[in-house]
Backbone:
């Protein structure tokens, strides 16, 4: 069973609907034992880091996630979920899970585009991802594919090895992170049309090892 | 780099599309769910549903429509019309919409913006603005005034001031509709779009006046818009989304070109 972690951070039903359309059953849960027993875990989220971490801790889900990661269970982080796996977030000065070493920073004001126009924060809309290496989750996803982003904060990894994909928005930031059995995407793959569904579908069949 | 978004807008009344939409192929022209699926396949970047159902006791029909749309399309879509409070927002979002748009309700009670942003996040809250050009005055210094009831009622609020207030209250995006340009097919109101889009730090969707693909190019460049709302130009098959995007791409605008 695929467990979608429920920590009041929203957007859970759209992930479940996307899985359903692909023929995968899932359960939205905040129950620690259900998360521990799940075959794979999706860790979504919309909202603020501070509240999200507080809710995860209160429910004991922070430890469940850390344990599952070390056991080698496939885990997929989405949007805020991707920021929570880092060590620390500038948003609400939050200590996070630390599954990947690094920080989460806010887009600075004053970034501009190629027409020299001010870039807006949040980064909202469709943007591309440049993969640094191929990965089973991106199998069958064309290099021109774009994904739907909505975020004001972005992860900064301390280790370049963990950066699987990058996106340009005034600066180049890590939009896909990968460490062993964990892949985390900053965009909403459940709202990214066919390429997003393809990644989701690949995740549902992924063993959790780097290479297929 | 971020793509400019092309967003078809569908008007829905009692669960049916209001305008008779003539489409080639097997599309039920009256059914918003079929139309949504069609636009999803066509490469629309997002969809907007505007519920113009008159009686509030028929609103459940719209929730059912949203639920069915959410099962079929996997791009963001927003729902506006008849949203009066946080509970209305919650129902629409839980049914599967990505965003809700507030317009008249926000003018009457601006707190709905901050309450919505606190409950669901700013990214869910779109401030819909219907605007008419007026002579600049002390009360309306920008020369653009907010209107409600489809443009019939002036509310004495300056559009530029309202956009900034909406942003500070927590709106995540603005959908800016020029009542003067709406339905003319003579082009977006560029000066209005530029004024608002360059004065706020949230994305602005331009609405009202699109008739040709050149109009889209204009508003996405001179008009500073982040996205463009379209209706009749694709609803009646004059253009396809693909044609629009190819044209914009050739003119140097970044658009999502594979899906």
Residues:
């Amino acid at each position: 069973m695929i467990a979608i972690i429920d920590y009041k951070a929203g957007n859970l039903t759209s992930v479940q609907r996307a899985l359903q359309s692909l023929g995968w059953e899932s359960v939205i849960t905040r129950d620690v034992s259900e998360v521990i027993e799940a075959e794979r875990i999706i860790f979504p989220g919309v909202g603020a880091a501070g509240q999200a971490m507080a809710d995860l801790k209160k429910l004991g889900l922070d430890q469940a996630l850390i344990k599952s990661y070390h056991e080698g269970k496939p885990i997929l982080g989405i949007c805020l979920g991707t920021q929570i796996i880092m060590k620390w977030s500038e948003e609400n000065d939050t200590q996070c899970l630390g599954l990947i070493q690094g920080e989460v920073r806010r887009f600075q004001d004053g970034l501009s585009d190629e027409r020299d126009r001010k870039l807006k924060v949040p980064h909202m809309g469709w943007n591309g991802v440049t993969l640094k290496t191929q990965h089973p989750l991106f199998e069958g996803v064309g290099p021109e594919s774009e994904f739907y982003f909505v975020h004001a904060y972005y992860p900064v990894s301390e280790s370049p090895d963990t950066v699987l994909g990058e996106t340009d928005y005034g600066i180049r930031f890590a939009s896909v992170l990968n460490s062993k059995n964990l892949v985390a995407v900053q965009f909403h793959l459940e709202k990214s049309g066919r390429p997003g569904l393809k990644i989701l579908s690949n995740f549902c069949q992924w063993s959790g090892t780097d290479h297929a | 780099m971020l793509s400019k978004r092309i967003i078809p807008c569908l008007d829905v009344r009692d669960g049916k599309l209001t305008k008779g939409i003539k489409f080639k192929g097997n599309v039920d022209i009256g059914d918003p769910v079929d139309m949504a699926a069609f636009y999803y396949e066509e490469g629309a970047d997002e969809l907007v549903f505007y519920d113009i159902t008159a009686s509030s006791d028929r609103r459940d029909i719209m929730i059912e429509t949203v639920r069915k749309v959410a099962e079929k399309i996997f791009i963001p879509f927003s729902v506006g019309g008849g949203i009066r409070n946080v509970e209305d927002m919650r129902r629409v979002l839980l049914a599967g919409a990505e965003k809700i748009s507030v317009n008249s309700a926000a003018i009457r009670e601006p707190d709905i913006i901050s309450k919505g942003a606190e409950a669901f996040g700013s990214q869910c809250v779109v401030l819909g603005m219907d605007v008419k050009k007026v002579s600049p005055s002390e009360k309306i210094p920008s020369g653009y005034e907010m209107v409600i009831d489809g443009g019939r009622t002036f509310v004495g609020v300056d559009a530029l001031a309202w956009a900034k207030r909406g942003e500070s209250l927590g709106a995540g995006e603005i959908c800016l509709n020029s009542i003067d340009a709406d339905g003319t097919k003579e082009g977006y109101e560029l000066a209005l779009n530029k004024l608002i889009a360059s004065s706020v730090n949230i994305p602005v969707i331009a609405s009202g006046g699109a008739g040709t693909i050149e109009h889209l190019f204009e508003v996405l460049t001179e008009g500073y818009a982040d996205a463009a709302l379209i209706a009749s130009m694709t609803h009646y098959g004059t253009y396809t989304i693909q044609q629009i995007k190819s044209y914009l791409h050739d003119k140097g605008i970044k658009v999502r070109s594979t899906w």
